[in-house]
Amino acid sequence: MKYSDYKKWSARANNWIDGYFRTLKDRPVRAQTKPGDITKQIAAAPPETAEDMEVILSDFERIIPDGMTHWQHPRFFAYFPANAAPASMIAEQLANAMAAQCMLWQTSPAATELETVMVGWLRDALGLPKEFQGVIQDSASSATLSAVLTMRERSQAFQGNRTGYAGAVPARIYCSEHVHSSIDKAAWIAGIGQENLVKIPTGASHSMRPDALRAAIDQDRAAGLQPAGIVLCIGGTSIGASDHLPPLIRIAREEGLYIHLDAAWAGSAMICPEFREIWDGVQDCDSVVFNPHKWLGAQFDCSVQFLRDPTDQILTLGIKPTYLHTHGHDDIINYSEWTVPLGRRFRALKIWFLIRAYGLDGLRRRIRNHIDWAAELEAKFRHDPEFTVITPCHFSLFTFQFTPAGKDADEFTSALLEAINDDGRIYLTQTQHQGKFVIRMQVGQFDCTREDVMVVYDVARELGAKLHKRL
Question: For 330-360, what is each residue's pLDDT tens digit?
C-alpha cells in the first residue's frame, strides 16, 4: 500500500467505523468467543508477498469485531471506562498521520508546548493550585512508578541511580489495602519489594487509619528501616474507597515522606466543584495522577501526573546524553526527562480537541448524570429483597450481591454475574470485599443514557429469576 492509496482505504475504514457505532448497541458487550477461536482463523505464518487491502479489510471485518469486548458500548459497566469521545478520536487520527516521536522539544515543538498548556487547562479545571506543573503519561501505572522511583531515590539522597541499591537500607512505602495493584507492581519494578510496601489498616469509612500509619512509621524507624513515601487513594478501583487526606498528609509532612495521590478514575469528577471536598488537602501532595482516558473521554492512552515541584522526579528520571541536547536552548522543557520512556506520543492533541469540542460544562454534565444515575440504580437494588447492596455509591460505583432467601450469596452472585455476561446485553465485573464475592457496577461510558443504566436492574432481575429455577 502506498501513501497515494491512503485516501481510498481510509474512506473504507471510516465507513466501517460509522457503521460500527450505529450498530454498536445491538452487539453483545463482552466478546462471546472461546479461547483459541480467533487464533484458528489467522494464518499461522506471515505472507511472503503483499496482500490486497480489500482482502485484509475483509478479514478484519470477518474476524476481529466479534472477538472484541466493546469498551465504547453504552452498556459497558465493567472495570472503569476507557472512553473515546469522537472529537478525541479525530485528534488521534491526525496525531497518527504525523506520527511524531515527541521525546524532545526540538523533535516536536508544538507537541511539547501544547502539552504544557493542556496540563495547565486540566490543573485549573480540577481546582489545583497554580504552582502545580505536570506531564502526560501513558497510564496511571507509569505515573505511579515514576513517583515510587522518586520516593526511592529521595530516600537515598539521590545517590541510588549512581551507586545502586545493593546493601542500602530498605525504603518503606505506605498505603491502604484499597490502592490499585499498580502500586504493588511499582514496588516490584523499583526494587523496593512487596514486603516493603506496607498496607495500613483502614477504618469504617475505608480510609487509611492515621494512628496505624504513625505506628507503622515509628516501628520501621526503630527497626532501622527507611520510610520513604506514602501513596494515597481517591476512588479506589475495587469499591471506590477514598482516603481522608488531611491527617495522613500531616503525618507524611512531619516524617518527611514523599506524597503521591492516585485519583486515576475519580480525579475526573473534580472538574465539578461540588465533589472536591473529598480530596481536601490535595494541594499538599507532591504528585497527583488522574486519567482523562477514563471518565473524561480522551482516547486511551492519556494519563496526567501533576507535580507540585518536578525537580525531584527530573533528578530521578532525567538523563541527557549528548545526542539528546538541544543546543542553545538549555532552559526548554523536554518531557522525556520527567518520565520512564524516552519515546513519547502526541497525547496533548486529543485533550485539546476534547475540551474544546465539549466544553467543561458538557463534561461536567456527563459526570453529574453518571453519578445521579448510579445512585438511582443503587436505590433499586437496595429496595429489592432479592439483592443486597454491599458498598454504597462512591461517585458512580457501588457493589451488590444476589441474596435470595436460603441461598448461598457468594454462589448465587457468581452465577448471576456469569449469566449476565453470557447474556451480552450488559457487562459487569466482580471484586472481593470483606470476604464476600460481589458484583461491581460503575457508570462512566461517555454516551450512555439513563435508560442504559436502568436496564442493569431489569437484566439482573430477569436472569436472577431464571437462576432460581435452575439452581
Answer: 678 888 889 998 889 989 999 999 999 999 9
pLDDT in tens, 272-283: 999 999 999 999
Neighbours of 219 (CB within 10 A): 12
Would you say 176 and 199 are in contact if contact means Cβ atoms under 8 Å apart? yes
Q: How far apart are CA 264 and CA 180, in angstroms?
A: 10
Cα separation, 122 vs 102, in Å, equals: 20
d(CA 153, CA 9) in angstroms, rounded, equals 50
Query: Which domains does the chain possess?
Result: 3-68 (1.20.1340.10), 101-345 (3.40.640.10), 366-470 (3.90.1150.170)
- Angle subtended at Cα 388 by Cα 456 and Cα 242, rounded to the nearest 5 degrees: 85
Distances in whole angstroms, Cα of residue 431 to Cα of each of 141, 398, 428: 20, 11, 10
Radius of gyration of the chain (CA): 24
CB 173 within 8 A of CB 230: yes
User: What's the chain look like in SS3?
Assistant: CCHHHHHHHHHHHHHHHHHHHHHHHHCCCCCCCCCCCCHHHCCCCCCCCCCCHHHHHHHHHHHCHHHCCCCCCCCECCCCCCCCCHHHHHHHHHHHHHCCCCCCCCCCHHHHHHHHHHHHHHHHHCCCCCCCEEEEECCHHHHHHHHHHHHHHHHCCCCHHHHCCCCCCCEEEEEECCCCHHHHHHHHHCCCCHHHEEEECECCCCCECHHHHHHHHHHHHHCCCEEEEEEEEECCCCCCCECCHHHHHHHHHHHCCEEEEECCCHHHHHHCHHHHHHHCCHHHCCEEEECCCCCCCCCCCCEEEEECCCHHHHHHHCCCCHHHCCCCCCCCCCHHHHCCCCCCCCCHHHHHHHHHHHHHHHHHHHHHHHHHHHHHHHHHHHCCCCEEEEEEEECCEEEEEECCCCCCHHHHHHHHHHHHHHHCCCECEEEEECCEEEEEEECCCCCCCHHHHHHHHHHHHHHHHHHHHHC
Q: Which residue has the cell 458487550?
A: 29
The answer to whether the peptide bond before residue 301 is cis (omega within 30 degrees of 0) is yes
pLDDT in tens, 407-440: 899 999 999 999 999 999 999 999 999 999 999 9
Contact 241, 431 (CB under 8 A): no
Cβ contact 289:262 at 8 Å: yes
